[in-house]
UniProtKB/TrEMBL annotation:
The lineage of its organism: Bacteria, Deltaproteobacteria, Candidatus Zymogenia, Candidatus Zymogeniales, Candidatus Zymogenaceae. Coiled coil: none annotated. Gene3D superfamilies: lambda repressor-like DNA-binding domains. This is Helix-turn-helix domain-containing protein. GO terms for molecular function: DNA binding. It holds the Pfam family HTH_3. Residues 21-75 form the HTH cro/C1-type domain.
Length: 179
């Protein structure tokens, strides 16, 4: 009788399956015919699997796996389901790490922008506290960061403008206390 080809088992190595079956038989301490009986298969069928002639059908693999407390995946591939998941997981985790690195870079850039904005705000507050008035300032003496700061400040809600002002005042007090 000719064995039907299973399209899902095309990359399975019969020699390796045979080696794993032999390993299981040795671990049980049974003779081949006893092992076959326990798995509800004929000794002749087991012999064809052990001689690398055929790979057991899934129902037989299931019985062998059940009797030996292993998995069908291990019988066929030598890997446990967890190992297979880990391999796929490594690919997934690598992608997650790459995505996280990209996100970190974006947030780093935003933090630098915020730091620059804070620095500009502190400079403006310093000028204002020293009696300077930006309303009367010469536009040519205002640097691009200061223009950006003022533009961004105007985009904020009143509540957030108050927070920025409070924060800059606190920072100015800290700076003064250091002197």
């Amino acid at each position: 009788m000719r064995q039907r080809k299973n399209k899902y088992l095309t990359n399975i190595n019969p020699k390796k399956v045979s080696e794993r079956l032999n390993e299981l038989i040795k671990k049980t301490g049974l003779k081949q015919y006893q092992f076959a009986e326990k798995c509800n298969i004929t000794a002749a069928a087991l012999s064809t699997y052990l001689n690398k002639e055929r790979i057991p059908e899934s129902a037989i693999l299931a019985r062998i796996a059940d009797f030996t407390n292993t998995s069908m995946e291990w019988l066929l591939t030598g890997k446990t389901v967890n190992e297979q998941i880990m391999e796929k997981g490594d690919e997934f985790h690598n992608q997650v790490l790459k995505d996280m690195a990209d996100e970190i870079e974006i947030w780093r850039e935003k933090a630098l922008e915020a730091e620059n904005l804070l620095r500009s705000t502190q400079e403006v507050m310093s000028v204002m506290e020293s009696g300077g008035d930006y309303k009367d300032a010469d536009p040519e003496k205002i640097n691009p960061d200061e223009v950006s700061l003022l533009s961004n400040f105007r985009l904020l809600s009143e509540k957030n403008q108050e927070k920025v002002l409070e924060y800059t005042e606190d920072q100015i007090r800290v700076e003064k206390s250091k002197k």
